[in-house]
Write a structure and sequence with these properties.
Bound molecules: zinc ion
Strand order of the largest sheet: 2-1-3
Shape: elongated
Number of helices: 0
Radius of gyration: 16 Å
Strand content: 25-35%
Helix content: under 10%
Largest sheet: 3 strands, antiparallel
CATH topology of one domain: Rubrerythrin, domain 2
Number of strands: 3
């Protein structure tokens, strides 16, 4: 599930949330002050599997990152 980072406009609190794609566009409540005046800062897409590196995992040959 993707992790999104939000920041509160009212108190400046930054917080992370894991959201479903369908929830990502919804307003998130600030955990610090309860304000709904929050904005999405970063969406770090954590794709299960692709970023999972365990020990001596076999690295694919380097090629164009977008091939
Ligand atoms: Zn806040």
């Amino acid at each position: 599930m993707p992790m999104y980072q939000f920041a509160c406009r009212d108190c400046g609190q930054a917080f992370d949330k894991r959201l479903r794609m369908s929830q990502a566009s919804q307003t998130q409540e600030c955990p610090n002050c309860g304000s709904l005046e929050t904005r999405k800062v970063i969406s770090a897409i954590a794709v299960g599997g692709a970023s999972r590196v365990s020990g001596a995992a076999v690295a694919p040959p380097v090629s164009s990152p977008f091939s």
